[in-house]
Amino acid sequence: MSDERTARLVRAAQNGDTLAMNDLLDELCPYVERICAPIALQQGEDAAQEALTAIFRGLRSLKEPAAIYGWARTVAAREAVRIARRGARSEPADLSELPARGDPQLATDVHDVLTRLTPEHRAVLVLRDLEGMDEQTAAAQLGIQAGTVKSRLHRAREKFRKAWSA
Prior knowledge:
This protein has two domains: 1-88, Rna Polymerase Sigma Factor, Chain: A (Orthogonal Bundle); 92-166, Arc Repressor Mutant, subunit A (Orthogonal Bundle). Helix content is 72%, strand content 0%. It has eight helices and no strands. The longest helix has 23 residues, at 18-40. The radius of gyration is 17 Å and the shape is elongated.
């Protein structure tokens, strides 16, 4: 969908057009799910739903319609961390159960390793390594300092490597 059409949808939705709001949420849904799924893991669908609800409720506060995707990314990442934190396990993960490196189901291996990271670590990995953001942008998206992003990213990558090679 074009940026111009998206901006028109945002403006119309902000002015109370329910059909425009529906179209806008339909457009944003796959994007929000792509952000939430690797952060919130099993609660990814719940996080995406919460993020879309927050977008629906807060859309009138968005000043620049062209910034909808950046704003939606911020909302999605924060909701995914909140939902993942709420559902986090209270005991540390047993890394000895991690499948061997040669396992043919690589996606399952990666998922297993990601489940062993905290939601905060998954969030910085997603924003930096999957979304390609720099530290300043990721920090702004998560509402933390750039130095915190840098240290969390370092720890997340280190924990990922250790879990992966176990």
